[in-house]
């Protein structure tokens, strides 16, 4: 086990890995024997937990990331990413290897992700004492839905530390996501696979402990459920052309948590999230770059067009 860093504002649990980015002429990609990729095929560190950690650190929050990593070139890329950005990392050994995925990115910035599920084992667990120690020195824990985070939820709940999670494109029915949804104080998810976002959001709040539920809806903005009231959060205007939506939800979550830990009301937190998500859409998937605190606050307080 490798470990760096001490007390943190946010402990990010899981979601470390490597993506191979391929710019394709369109999505869905028609069948062909081969395609010429003039933009190149690039492999870089950064999956959902990495991007949340990057976003938090860029906003000035002390961030610690815990996950399983392989002793392989992909794991080295993840370790290097954290060193470069000053993010504390506790990397537990993963004999199956570091998580990896292939992202096909279309001209409009939409993506199709292909995840290699062989990089995990059914018996993988985070040591309970490691969880208690790291959570106990953190103000907040953000739990990704990657394995083995589900088994960590009871340990984390017993600590009493506030939790958040991102259910990504949950359809509202898959039972795997429910323990995450019901254990977290703040729940993020995409509205993409929901036929009735409000119904799903209210069910999360009624069955769990969520104080705020946010459903992001891309160019349509987001929906915020807080204090029993559902409101619409307008989408922020991207500061440059949209090139890739990869990491936009992670950026939204990081900025929302920045506001929440700073004592801001949910509506302001959601506005921060919208600005950060719009910024992320202008960053090519081959780069790991998050909005900084000064830029976030400037754009979030600027008059809306």
Automatic annotation (TrEMBL):
Segments forming domain Carbohydrate kinase PfkB: 186-287
Molecular-function GO terms, alphabetical: kinase activity
SUPFAM superfamilies: Ribokinase-like (SSF53613)
Keyword Nucleotide-binding: no
UniProt keywords, alphabetically: Kinase, Transferase
Keyword Nucleus: no
Pfam families per the UniProt record, alphabetical: PfkB (PF00294)
PANTHER family found in the cross-reference section: RIBOKINASE, SUGAR KINASE
Protein name: Ribokinase
């Amino acid at each position: 086990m490798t470990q760096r860093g001490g007390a943190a504002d946010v402990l990010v649990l899981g979601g470390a890995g490597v993506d191979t980015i391929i710019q394709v002429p369109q999505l869905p990609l028609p069948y062909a024997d081969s395609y010429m990729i003039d933009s190149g095929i690039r492999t870089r560190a950064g999956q959902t937990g990495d991007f949340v950690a990057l976003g938090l650190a860029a906003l000035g929050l002390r961030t610690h990331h815990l996950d399983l990593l392989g002793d392989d070139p992909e794991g080295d890329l993840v370790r290097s990413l954290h060193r470069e950005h000053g993010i504390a990392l506790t990397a537990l050994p993963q004999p199956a290897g570091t998580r990896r995925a292939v992202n096909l990115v279309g001209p409009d910035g939409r993506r199709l992700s292909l995840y290699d599920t062989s990089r995990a084992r059914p018996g993988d667990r985070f040591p309970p004492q490691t969880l208690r120690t790291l959570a106990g020195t953190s103000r907040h824990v953000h739990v990704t839905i990657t394995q083995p985070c589900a088994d960590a939820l009871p340990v984390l709940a017993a600590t009493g530390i506030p939790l958040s999670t991102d259910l990504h494109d949950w359809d509202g029915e898959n039972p795997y996501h429910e323990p995450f949804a019901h254990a977290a104080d703040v729940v993020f998810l995409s509205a993409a696979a929901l036929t009735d976002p409000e119904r799903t959001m209210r069910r999360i709040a009624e069955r769990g402990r969520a104080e705020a539920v946010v459903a992001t809806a891309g160019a349509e903005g987001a929906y915020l459920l807080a204090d029993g009231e559902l409101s619409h959060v307008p989408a922020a205007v991207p500061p440059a052309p949209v090139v890739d939506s990869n990491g936009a939800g992670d950026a939204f979550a990081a900025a929302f948590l920045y506001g929440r830990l700073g004592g801001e009301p949910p509506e302001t937190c959601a506005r921060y999230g919208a600005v950060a998500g719009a910024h992320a859409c202008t960053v090519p998937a081959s780069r790991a770059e998050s909005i900084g605190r000064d830029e976030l606050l400037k754009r979030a307080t600027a008059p809306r067009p």
